[in-house]
Amino acid sequence: MTTLSALTLVRNRQAHLDRLVEGLTLSASPPDEMIVIDMSDAPVTLPPLDFPVSVKRLPGGVLPLAAARNLAAASAAGDVLLFLDVDCIVSSAVCGRMKALLADHDAVVCPEVLYLPAHAIPPGPLSTTELKTAGRPHPVRPFPQDGERLERNPGLFWSLAFALRRSTFHRIGGFDEAYVGYGAEDTDLGFRIARDGLPLLFAGGAPVFHQHHEGYDPPLQHFQALVANANRFHARWSIWPMAGWLRAMAERGLIDWSSDRLTIRRAPTPHEIAAARKGPADPF
User: Which of 3, 33, 37, 123 is the most exposed place for a label (fewest CB within 10 A)?
Assistant: First the structure.
């Protein structure tokens, strides 16, 4: 029998975590366990659940996304690992769908993601019907209406929501912890998935809903990490990741960027960071 571990990372987002947990408890096939890597200033809390939960603290000033996801995977016992960012809510069929697909296929599976605008989740119990009505597909990442589609662009692998066999995650080496902080660690994993010939499947019809939260475009609050991780990625793959963000930073005069070189000209000012904040109407 295939078992599934749901894995998430959280940093000061208790409300998002509460909704993620609620969605998992309402699943037609709930996870066999949940692993939470807590990077919050104050420890998160969880209600009593019908499946085991393990919360591991990972304090620190940086945002060690690669290391945190690897810790979650190392702590998991399930045959299948379902990675979910803390701002995700699974629809009822997601866990069962991932288990069934990965019982038959050694692959990486990304469930369809629908993005919710601010205030799309009313107080009270979750309603999948309301979430589907409010959710919007991402314009650059199309999913099939039903079934699975083989995706050949490794740059479209995002760590927001994905599943694979635990044995496969460890075989490919997990996330590269040389990427410290925000940016490019998931694109690097996507390229290694492609290099190793592992199918990347986009699965439609059983969506994950992305809860709205404050965001920045480009994410200038992570400026130093973005530049360092972009250079690290380019040194390995001879391709620039996060090209849209790098272009936006170059247009602001923050970086010098060419086909083979990326250097910092100056750090963004607090005003520039604030100006990059996205509005509540932007679900992406």
Answer: 123
Nearest to 141 by CA among 129, 153, 130: 153
**High-pLDDT (> 90) share of the chain, %:** 90
| 235-236-239 Cα angle (round to 5) | 75
User: Domain range holding 83?
Assistant: 4-210
* Residues 137 and 266 reside in one and the same domain: no
pTM assigned to the model: 0.96
Residue 61 has pLDDT above 80, yes or no: no
**Residue 282 is assigned to a structural domain of this protein:** no
Q: Which amino acid is at 256?
A: D
Q: Which of 37, 47, 46, 33 is nearest to 4 (CA)?
A: 33
Cα distances (Å, whole numbers) of residue 124 to 121, 235, 253, 271: 9, 49, 46, 37
Q: Where are the alpha helices (DSSP H) in the chain?
A: 14-25, 65-75, 94-104, 128-134, 166-171, 185-195, 223-237, 243-251, 270-275
Give the number of other CB atoms < 10 A from CB of residue 131. 19
The CATH number of residue 202's host domain is 3.90.550.10
Same structural domain, 98 and 227: no
